[in-house]
Design brief:
single chain; about 650 residues; TIM Barrel; Immunoglobulin-like; 17 helices; 6-stranded antiparallel β-sheet; globular; Oligo-1,6-glucosidase, domain 2
């Protein structure tokens, strides 16, 4: 029986279905942009409840023959970002001429009000998003109030096909609304800026040198000058004096560069300059400042519209950590014995054969996060720093944790109970979707995007990593993750754990002078990073064109502010202004366009005025690029183009579709 107000059932191959597919394209430019969404639906999604088990409708044989795949319980196929419900299907590449989503009234889930009543019966066109490995993804943006829908397919040959109806489950994975609009910047505090020289010498009192019975190598040192030559112990036990006051002093500079999200490497009391070997998770490193300074820093950053991420290290402690020292002293009689995995006792601190350590390192004893006491303590630590005022956590080495997925689920619950809008980022170097199902991390540190794809393309060193290769890699990246996750991507090319971007691009090692060509390639790579959905994150000093190889950890050399490249600083400030001023760069939608020779180009945002074409040329000669239909305006120069545009050698353009010129 047909419900009152609901459209009648549609038979595959019917004239009604053909008309609806055609009508979808007329409505596509209006419906997602003009319909409001139901706040109650967003609230339910943000609660993070696991979606209930759903029974998928049978896939018609004709759709199965196209390789059709869609599961609303899979966040890759259905998620919420920027106030829209993004729906994705996958089919065999070349099998579809068109597709649309038919919004259906009714459903057995929670009652919807408002927009769900007004859009029932409407159709929204799907657009072809990307293709790779013989498959193609099609995507549509629906109002969040939609509860039930049918997918309608127009094959390249044969009759139209209707699949569904499907129901939107509760607890749909939802992007944090602020991340996609941000510009990120990573700070390694000891090497950023020295704002308070009076606390420099305090570093030596906390250093692991004082407690490591197996110490080898040079003693820790406080360098006499910000420009002192890098010592052998640069990685970990050479202190230059950078501190929290220095970060506070530089906030106006960062604001002028357009930065509004700061990620701070560890600030807690620890046994090294890097801070990943905590002596206390709750006390600030004395050589960096104190809690009062942290609070002033956070207050000032927030006043400037910035958010700040805390570096949380649940996998291991340092040798000076109070619980580990208790185990060293009392052995099996210690109440913290089960906090670590001890192979024998007694032992000397630093003896990597006596207990488990991160990557087998004796100075980083590993916590047993499957122990209830360890879990409770660490979750309290996370909650504490959020109450101090941090806006999220970057979680160090979660894949090394004992029963990591279980711990991170508990961490997410604890974090979101304090700050529902807190950002949770995991240091996973590979593309691993198992951490991104809506119940663990909001994003990973996307080295797999930045270093494995963007950097290889920007080097321009081999046709093997040219435009076609890059387009395929980005298509796989996009098709393999929820749209909500893409919108929250923590996107990096380099960090304190890699060689610097400019060094990777042929600029030379620390102390060298980069060539103009290498500088052009950094501008290309950074423009490409800013053009991707999510949060672009720059490592301190990259905007100064600083060099530094991983060998000897020279990427961690202090930022030499007096030697900053003004042209590169202006370039990063320009990218930040473009990110803030072009709505398409905060839109979660990424659409493949062109990958050929040295050219890579893709579209951001829906096919309406304001859509952005990001175009790049990694080659050493200018090349033409055929433009999509319409008039396209260069966001930097203001010039308009139709039909074709020239891409400069090792260059880039952001082109915006003009209104009324399609």
């Amino acid at each position: 029986m047909t419900r009152r107000g609901a459209p009648p059932p549609v038979r595959p191959g019917s004239r009604t279905l053909r008309l609806r597919l055609a009508r979808a394209f007329l409505l596509a430019t209006l419906l997602p942009a003009t319909l409001p969404f139901a706040p109650s639906a967003v609230a339910r999604a943000e609660e993070g409840a696991a979606p209930p088990a759903t029974t998928l409708p049978a896939t018609p044989p004709a759709a199965a023959a196209l390789g059709f795949r869609h599961d609303p319980a899979d966040p890759t196929d259905l998620s919420i970002a920027e106030g829209r419900l993004y729906l994705r299907i996958r089919v065999d590449d070349g099998s579809l001429a068109a597709a649309s989503v038919q919004i259906v009234a009714g459903g057995t889930g929670p009652a919807r009000t408002g927009p769900a009543r007004t859009v029932a019966g409407a159709a929204v066109a799907m657009v072809r998003q990307a293709q790779a490995d013989g498959h193609a993804a099609w995507i549509a943006a629906l109002p969040v109030g939609v509860h039930r829908y049918r997918i309608e397919l127009a094959p390249m040959s044969g009759d139209p096909i209707a699949v569904g109806p499907y129901e939107v489950p509760s607890g749909v994975a939802t992007a944090l609304p602020w991340v996609a609009h941000g510009v990120g910047y990573q700070i390694f505090p000891d090497r950023f800026f020295n704002g308070d020289p009076t606390n420099d010498a305090r570093a030596l009192a906390s250093d692991a040198f004082n407690v490591d019975a197996r110490w080898s190598g040079p003693a820790p040192v406080v360098l006499p000058s910000w420009a002192s030559a890098p010592p052998e112990s640069l990685c970990c036990h050479a202190y230059y004096g950078g501190d929290l006051q220095g970060i506070l002093d530089k906030l106006p500079y960062l604001a002028a560069e357009g930065v509004d999200v700061l990620y701070l490497n560890p600030i807690v009391d620890a046994g090294s300059a890097h801070g990943y070997d905590a002596s206390s998770f709750l006390d600030v490193a004395p050589h960096l400042g104190d809690l009062a300074t942290v609070r002033r820093l956070l207050a000032r950053a927030h006043a400037l519209g910035m958010r700040v991420l805390f570096d949380f290290v649940p996998d291991h402690t340092g040798l000076g950590f109070w619980a580990f020292r208790n185990v060293v002293r009392y052995g099996p009689n210690s109440p913290y014995w089960d906090w670590y995995v001890v192979r024998r006792w007694p032992f000397e601190p630093g003896d990597a054969t006596a207990y488990a350590g991160w990557s087998g390192v004796g100075s980083l004893p590993q916590l047993n996060t499957s122990d209830p006491g360890v879990e409770r303590y660490l979750l309290e630590v996370a909650r504490y720093w959020l109450t101090v005022g941090f806006d999220g956590l970057r979680v160090d080495a979660p894949n090394a944790l004992v029963d990591g997925h279980t711990f991170v689920r508990a961490l997410r619950s604890a974090v979101k109970s304090v700050r529902p809008d807190a950002y949770l980022v995991g240091e996973i170097w590979s593309a691993d979707p198992s951490w991104l199902q809506g119940d663990q991390f909001d994003s990973l540190m996307n080295y797999a995007l930045g270093r494995d794809v963007l950097l290889k393309y920007a080097k321009g060193a081999s046709p093997l990593f040219g435009g076609r290769w890059a387009q395929t890699q980005l298509a796989r990246w996009t098709m393999g993750q929820p749209t909500a996750v893409a919108a929250m991507g923590f996107n990096v090319i380099d960090s304190h754990d890699t060689s610097r971007l400019l060094t990777d691009l042929g600029g030379g090692d620390w102390g060298d002078t980069p060539s103009p060509s290498a500088l052009s390639r950094e501008r290309l790579a950074s423009a490409l990073l800013y053009a991707m959905p999510g949060l672009p994150v720059t490592f301190q000093g990259d905007e100064c064109a600083q060099l530094g190889q991983k060998a000897g950890d020279l990427e961690r050399y202090p930022v030499q502010w007096d030697a900053c490249d003004a042209g590169m600083q202006a370039h990063y400030a320009l990218l930040a202004r473009l990110k803030a001023g072009l709505p398409a760069l905060s839109d979660p939608l990424w659409l493949a366009y062109r990958g050929q020779g040295s050219v890579l180009a893709f579209l951001r945002g829906a096919p309406h005025p304001g859509q952005l074409l990001a175009a790049f040329n990694s080659g050493t000669a200018a090349v033409p690029l055929e433009l999509p239909a319409g008039m396209w305006t260069d966001a930097v120069s203001g010039r308009s183009y139709r039909g074709q545009v020239s891409l400069p050698a090792v260059g880039w353009r952001y082109l915006v579709l003009a209104a009324g010129a399609q």
